[in-house]
Structure formats: structure tokens, C-alpha cells
Amino acid sequence: MMKGPIACLSVLVVLFWMCQPGSAIVGDIDGNSTVNLDDLVVLATTWLADDCVADSWCNQADIDQYGDVDFVDFVLLAEHWLQAEPYIITLLTSYEPGEP
Asked: Number of H helices and number of E strands within the chain?
């Protein structure tokens, strides 16, 4: 137990595998930093679309950006299945001795 009037700053760093927008993982269609079932659902709902353009690439399901959602995109997703980016959360709390 700490004594005295000096305030303590405790830093807790926790490593998570969780959401972070703007993922750089190939196959992470929804941008949640994990290639998972959510990405596969997006790919399946746009399966065989052949009108993908640069503004959305068929909701990002056209992973190879070749203009269509096909087996090549599925393979790219499958190659990175369940990969995730680490997301670090830093929690800062202030503690003053004598406080409850």
C-alpha cells in the first residue's frame, strides 16, 4: 500500500485482438482488423458481382480490385482466415492515497 501525498499514475496496457477501423490485413473486408465470418458474409452477398468500381469495390469484397467478386477474392480471404491485428489499449488512472 502506498503512503504519502504523492499521486500515483498507474498505467495498464492490455493487448487485445479486436476492432480497429482501417485494417491492413488482406481479406478484412469490413475493416474490423480480423478476417472472419463477417467478411465472408460480405463476400457471399456480393458473390459474382462484375460491376465493382473504385469507389467501393463492391463493399470491399473485390479484394484484388479486378472489377468482380470471384474465386480469386475468396482465395485471398481464405489465405488470411482468422488473422487479426493486435490492438493496444492504454488505460490511465489517477490514484490519490487515502481515496476510496
From this structure: 2, 2
Please, what are the averages of pLDDT over each run of 10 residues along the chain (100 residues)? 43 36 81 95 97 95 97 97 79 62
Q: In whole angstroms, give the CA distance from residue 22 to residue 24.
A: 7
CB neighbour list of residue 88: distance below 8 Å, 6 or more residues apart: 13, 14, 15, 16
- What's the CA gap between 92 and 95, in Å, rounded? 10
Which CA distances in Å does 25 have to 43, 52, 63, 69, 87?
Answer: 15, 20, 11, 18, 13
Question: pTM here?
Answer: 0.65
Please give the tally of structural domains in the chain. 1
* Domain coverage including residue 66: 24-92
